[in-house]
Each structure stands twice: as C-alpha cells, then as structure tokens.
Amino acid sequence: MGRVIGIDLGTTNSCVAVLEGGKPVVIPNSEGGRTTPSIVGFTKTTERLVGQLAKRQAVTNAENTIFSIKRLIGRTWSDTEAERRRIPYKVLPGKDDTVNVEARSKTYTPQEISAMVLQKLKLDAEAYLGEQVTEAVITVPAYFTNAQRQATKDAGTIAGLEVLRIVNEPTAAALAYGLDRQNKDHCILVFDLGGGTFDVSVLQLGDGVFEVLATAGNNHLGGDDFDDRIVRWLIEEFKNASHIDLSGDRMALQRLKEAAEKAKIELSTTVSTSINLPFITADNTGPKHLDTLLTRAKFESLIADLVEGTMTPTRRALQDAEITPQDVHKVILVGGSSRIPVIQETIRKFMGKESDRSVNPDESVALGAAIQAGVLGGEIQDVLLLDVIPLSLGIETVGGVFSKIIEHNTTIPTSKSQIFTTSADGQTTVEVHVLQGERSMAADNKTLARFNLAGLPPAPRGIPQVEVGFGIDANGILNVVAKDRGTNREQKVSITNSGKLTAAEVERMRLEAQEYAETDRTRRELVEVRNQCEQLMYSCDRTLHANRDLIRPDLIERVETARADVKLLLDEADPSVENLRQHMDQLQEDLLAVGASIYEQTDIPLE
Ligand code: AMP
Fold first, then answer.
1. Which is the catalytic residue, given 126, 154, 169, 590?
2. The sheet that has 48-50: what strands, in order across it?
3. Which residues surround ligand 1 with Cβ inside 6 Å?
4. Using CA atoms, how far apart are residues 140 and 126, in angstroms rounded to an integer?
5. Are the C-beta atoms of 357 and 347 separated by less than 8 Å?
6. For residue 448, how far is the Cα from the chain centroid?
7. pLDDT reported for residue 265
C-alpha cells in the first residue's frame, strides 16, 4: 500500500496532508502555498489553470473561472437557485435535475471540476513525496447529503484517487486536535464555518476513541454569504451615488466580490477598511470609480442575522448530545470564517468560554484527514473514529408520512430494518420512497430514491410483509434493500443520486483527467527545466564576465552560441522540454570545457 493522503476539499481553499513519522503534516503546493484555492480557470489557449494561477486571472476571465463548485456538487437545479444567482460563470441544468457549468463552450459536471482541484493536490503530493499517490481520505461537511458525498467520491475517482473514506470535516478537525490528547476524557465542540458551509459537532474523546455525539449545521451558510452581503451593500451605495446598477456587469461583479472578500478579511484585524475600485464602470460622462469606507461595525450589522443563525445548529447539536455548554471542555474553531471577531465573540458568549486556538483553522481538517488516512493505512493503531449520520433516513408510508428507519446522530456504519405492509387489497407492487430529513411529512423532506418492489402475491391488505433494510457505510453512504418475506423477492438500490454518473461515465471522465494529468506533469517539468536553464545562463554570464581573458576565443564562441540557442528556445511560447534539455546539456558541457580551460591556464602547483 502506498501513502494515503488526507484532503480537505474546501469551498474556497483546499489543503492536503500526509502522515510523517506518525504526525500529520501539510504538503505545500507547487506555488509554495499551504492551501490551494479551489478554483479552475479555462484560458483562451485552452489551458486549464488550477489554484493560485486560476485565482490570479479570475477578474479578467470571470466567465471561465469556476469557483465555489462545492456549493453545487451533488445538488439539484431547483435546490440551488440562490447559489446560481450569484456566480459569474455559466450554469445549466444537467442530468437528473443536477447543475452543470460551462466554460469556453464546454460543459462540465461539478464532479469533473472538483476532480481538477483534486488532481492538482494529488500531483503536488506526488512531487512532495516522490512517489505516486493513488489513495486518499477526503473530508466533506458533516451536513453533506448522501448525494453530495457520493459525488465527492466520484470526483476522487475521476482524479485517479481511490477514496478510502469520506470523513466529516468537524470530526477530522477533532482528530487533529485530539491526537496528542487521547488519554484525556474530553468533551469538545467543533464550530466549523468555512466558505460555503457551516457545521457544528459535539464529540466525546477518551482512550483513543473519538465519538461524535451529535452534529448539526447549515449547508448554505459560509464566508461567501458574508462577501455577498458586502457586494450587495456596495452595489446599493454605488447606485445611490452614481445611479448605475452594477449587478448585471459580470466583470464588475467579480471585482466587487474580490474586493468584498479582501475587506472582510481585513476587518478581522482592523476596525475599518477602504474599498477602492477605480474604473469599475463608465457612462457617457466618463469612467466611474468606486471608493468607500467599510467599518467593522457596519460589516457586523450587514451579517448580523447570519451570525445569529449559526447559534441555532449549535444549540441543536448540544441538545441532541444531551449536554449543556458547561459540559463542553474545549471549543475548537475551524474554517476561515471562524476568524471573524463577531463570530468568535458570539460563540464565546454562548459557550461561556474562550475557544481553543491550538489548531490552525485552515489546516486542521486536512491534518485530521491525514490521521484517518494513517488509521486506514495501518500506520496509526490506537485511534478509533465513531462518526454519525447528520440527518434521519426513512421511507414514505401511507398518508404521506415519513417513517424514520435510522435516526439522525446514529453512529456509522450501521444497518437497520423494519417490516412494512400493503395498504390495499390485492396490491402486488409497493413503492419504496427513500427520504432524508427531520420533518414528519414525506413531502417536507429530501427524496433520495424511489423504486418498486413488484411481484407480491395478491393478498388482503396488511398481510404481505415487506422488510425494508437500510445500511449505511463508514462514508455515510446509504444502501437500501426491500424484500418480500413471502417470496424472498428483493430489490436493492445504492443511493447515488449525484447526477447519477454511471460507472462508465466516471471511467470516461477519469481517463480524460488522466490525459490532463500528463499535460500538467509536462507543464511542471517545463517550468523546472526553464528554471534550470535560466540559472545556467546566469552562471554562464558570470563565468564569461569574470574570466574572459583566461578563456580561449574559440571556446567563448562555442559557449556564447550554446547560450544563444538556449535563450532562443526560452523565448519561444511553448518549447519542448526535450529540446530545452538537449540545449541545456550542451551549454553545460561547453561550460565545463570552459572551466577546465581556465584551470589549465592557472595550473600553478600549490606548495
Ligand atoms: P475555508 O472554506 O475554511 O477555506 O474558509 C474560507 C472562507 O474563510 C472564505 O470565505 C474566506 O474569505 C474566509 N476567511 C479566510 N480568512 C479570513 C479572515 N481572516 N477573516 C474572515 N474571513 C476569512
């Protein structure tokens, strides 16, 4: 078994970590950063940029730069109206009411876009470890539905990674916090507010066992929403001052979004910040500039209801875990948005204690994923993770009632079955409508699947016995079996309504991604060879400059020609790595000859 990496696939940023000597460490990316923006940009020249490079060109290429894809993955078109409204790239309905994105006239599923981010993390990990990586643990928000989990797993497969386990983000953060504190009996609350999702989990820790007692959250709340509030405020301000509505201008929107995020982050350490966007638009009187001041107090008033909104799931998680804030020993903050002072203050007041700052909120989830990777890979033996499902699962029964089969916060893996019967005389088919949620009526919950069990022998109602069994694996992914006890006839479904990518589709996407991995590898190689060439040219110039008098003229000419050849190639837009290497080797050889000839001339023996 090779090394298993742990990946925090974030809405805004992603992070990859691995175990080294029993301790998790973050793997830096090829640009030297410890986290990688979860952004993919498609350039005019059909190049695909991922991470920092994609972020850098987002303003000038807003329509072809895909960010926050995690807000769309595994979700339906009808469920994502609010998200879709605020993104500058094109989205269109996908298969089975899912959402696809379009860039440079090509359509992609969210799984494919996420796979591009994962692929970069995989490549960076491979470069760091010096070996191929094929297995990973990936984290998802605890509140991710079955479809979102399955879609994330598919993204991993497309990127060429076998996803050994999907772990909930707050649970991973708790692992990172608790690895060194395993022997203390501890009750911890993880408050995880990222770019697009909010999770809160309560865990009991002791003797190496990390047991999730309860989890709650909101899949639609995060830092992007705070940015959005600032953007809307800026649009309003600008409209009042110059009577121009910027809300339909994609490029302006992208600039506003970036400026809003920057201002928000600054306001975590300062009490006011200026937002200055020259040439944001123009009308017949000339160019228009946006220049305004945002104070922390104003920002806090803009997001007050959202901040207050985080307390509802916090309260629920404590209630479900049957504990009070006083029973919690440690509060751990995770996710970039937990750095906002008003958020910290709100939690402090509610919990009656300061939060723990020993774990880095940007890295703890990836570190925890790496620990779980170590557990699965056998490197760590004394840690046991007991996670739970966030929402109840069940089926629709007569009268549109939601009958729960597995309650939320049940430890996984788990399985449970219940016997149901027919509601009409002579009924030979039953429909199994699988749902997820907490509401008592089926219509108010989320449909995961519908299937029929046919071929029941006709009998009076209430007589047939249909056993419906639910099994949830360690990833939180559900399988359902319905069996007629009379005939033993059964029907199974694996709940994978993630836009229902078939195995063949996933395989096709995986092969395509592999091709890109090749391109990415070549691009990385090219950058490395380019650097080596530049260095060699530099040392060539220095050698010639310092020792010109000591070098034979024919050798000078040879070296200068070789240097010029390398330079010529470097100036080409897309030189072949092979060609560059050859010329670099030639220059190196000629330089060695120069070195030798210098020494020949100064061959004065030492005493
Ligand atoms: P994550 O998904 O955990 O990477 O969190 C990303 C979110 O955190 C984004 O919305 C960022 O704008 C936000 N964020 C990062 N740093 C800060 C900060 N210092 N203050 C406020 N928000 C931040």
1. 169
2. 48-50, 40-42, 65-66
3. 10-13, 194-195, 223-224, 261, 264-265, 268, 335-337, 339-340
4. 22
5. no
6. 23
7. 97
Joined tokens for residue 517: 């991995």
**At which residue do the structure tokens 């160019």 appear?**
287
In one-letter notation, the amino acid at residue 151 is A
Residue 447 CA neighbour count, 13 Å, CB half: 13
Instruction: Give the integer Cα–Cα distance in Å for 436 and 390.
Output: 10
533-566 b/e (C-beta count within 10 Å ≥ 16 → b): beebbeebeebbeebeeebeeebbebbeebbebb
Torsion angle, alpha carbons of 215, 216, 220, 222, to 10: -70
Distance between CA atoms of residues 394 and 349, nearest Å = 37
Query: Which of these is catalytic: 112, 135, 154, 192?
Result: 192
291 is catalytic: no
Side-chain half-sphere of 446: how many Cα atoms within 13 Å?
A: 19
The pair of structure tokens assigned to 72 is 């769309």
Phi, psi of 32 (to 5 degrees): 95, 0
The pLDDT score that the predictor gives to residue 503 is 67
Of 36, 67, 258, 337, the one to substitute when testing ligand 1's pocket (max ligand atoms within 8 A of C-beta) is 337
Per-residue H/E/C for 372-386: HHHHHHCCCCCCEEE
Q: Is residue 70 flagged as an active site residue?
A: yes
Pocket test for ligand 1, best of 69, 192, 265 (most atoms within 8 A of CB): 265
Q: Which two three-digit tokens encode residue 455?
A: 């071929």
Beta pairing partners, 394: 404, 435
Nearest atom, ligand 1, residue 224 CA? 10
**C-alpha 81 – ligand 1 centre gap (Å):** 23
Q: Is 8 part of the annotated catalytic residue set? A: yes
Q: How many whole angstroms from 197 Cα to the centroid of ligand 1?
A: 11
Q: Is 192 a catalytic residue?
A: yes
pTM above the 0.85 mark?
A: no
Regions of the chain short of the pLDDT cut 50: 497-499
- Read out DSSP for 82-142? HHHHT-SSEEEE-GGGBEEEEETTEEE-HHHHHHHHHHHHHHHHHHHHTS---EEEEEE-T
Alpha helices by DSSP H, 222-310: 223-242, 250-266, 296-309
